[in-house]
Design a protein that fits this description.
Layout: E1 4-5, H1 8-11, E2 20-23, H2 33-42, E3 47-50, H3 61-66, E4 70-75, H4 82-90, E5 94-97, H5 100-111, E6 116-119, H6 126-129, E7 133-136, E8 142-145, E9 151-154, E10 157-163, E11 167-178, E12 183-184, H7 193-199, E13 200-211, E14 230-233
Parallel strand pairs: 1-14, 2-3, 2-11, 3-4, 4-5, 11-13, 13-14
Antiparallel strand pairs: 6-10, 7-8, 9-10, 11-12
Helix pairs in contact: 5-7
């Protein structure tokens, strides 16, 4: 069966209410905008998202957030999205904040079939001891707090147990992909994309350039096609800059 789908809309057509999504990208770099836009048009709701951040207002995952389609987010950064902060603080959105490296490893480990792992990151903090607000009540009190995690000692050092991420679907963006799903990411757009792609039971890749099998040097493949079930030729599209900084004359 061919992995190539005619459109982003066709590729995400079976993502339903309550689905969990691992989404590639870092800030606005390497985000699968076409797949996100197609999902927004379907008006699915109660989505659980695993991603470094949740886009910005009116772009990327911020589109799904503003439409009230996301129920829960596991991320390492809230950042530039005012709507994200508003929904979280008002009790409309459940948020699990996790160290960035831990989030990356949780995705990678899930893709490798590892259910959990120990890491020193977060030991002695609310990450391991619990009590982080996952969801607030409308009055600002904590409705759901993070539970304490198991801590063990190895070679005299403490490590906290982190559970891996297994998502129903993964959405990623690649510069080049072949019809078998082998993907190449462009520079820093590699970020969370291969990790998210590993974590999804069904991984959907939008690619700027679609080629035939054999046209990509095997040594240049960043994510093998065994992890990718669907490919959409998205072509080039608008790539926004999250925060533009211009040097002034006085900065020289």
């Amino acid at each position: 069966m061919s992995k190539v789908y005619e459109s982003a809309a066709e590729a995400v057509a079976d993502i339903g209410d309550g689905a969990s999504l691992a989404v590639g990208g870092f800030g606005l770099c390497g985000i699968p905008t076409d797949l996100i836009d197609a999902l927004a048009k379907r008006s699915v709701k109660d989505l659980e998202v695993f991603s470094n951040n949740c886009g910005v207002d009116e772009w990327g995952l911020g589109i799904l957030l503003a439409a009230g389609q996301i129920r829960r987010v596991t991320a390492s950064y809230v950042g530039e999205n005012k709507e994200f902060a508003r929904q979280y603080l008002s009790g409309e959105l459940e948020v699990e904040l996790t160290p960035q490296g831990t989030l990356a490893e949780r995705m990678r480990a899930g893709g490798a079939g590892i259910p959990a792992f120990y890491t020193p990151a977060g030991v002695g903090t609310p990450i391991s001891e619990g009590g982080l607000p996952w969801r607030y009540n409308a009055d600002g009190s904590v409705a759901i707090a993070s539970p304490p995690k198991e801590v063990r000692v190895f070679n005299g050092e403490k490590y906290v147990l982190e559970e891996s991420i297994f998502a129903d679907f993964a959405l990623v963006h690649a510069e080049v992909g072949d019809t078998e799903g082998n993907l190449v990411f462009n520079k820093t757009a590699m970020n969370f994309n291969p990790l998210a792609g590993m974590a999804g039971k069904i991984t959907i890749a939008q690619v700027e350039r679609l080629v035939e099998p054999g046209e990509i040097d095997p040594g240049h493949v960043h994510l093998p096609g065994v992890f990718v079930q669907r490919v959409v030729h998205a072509g080039t599209h608008e790539k926004r800059i999250e925060k533009r900084t211009i040097r002034t004359e006085g900065d020289r």
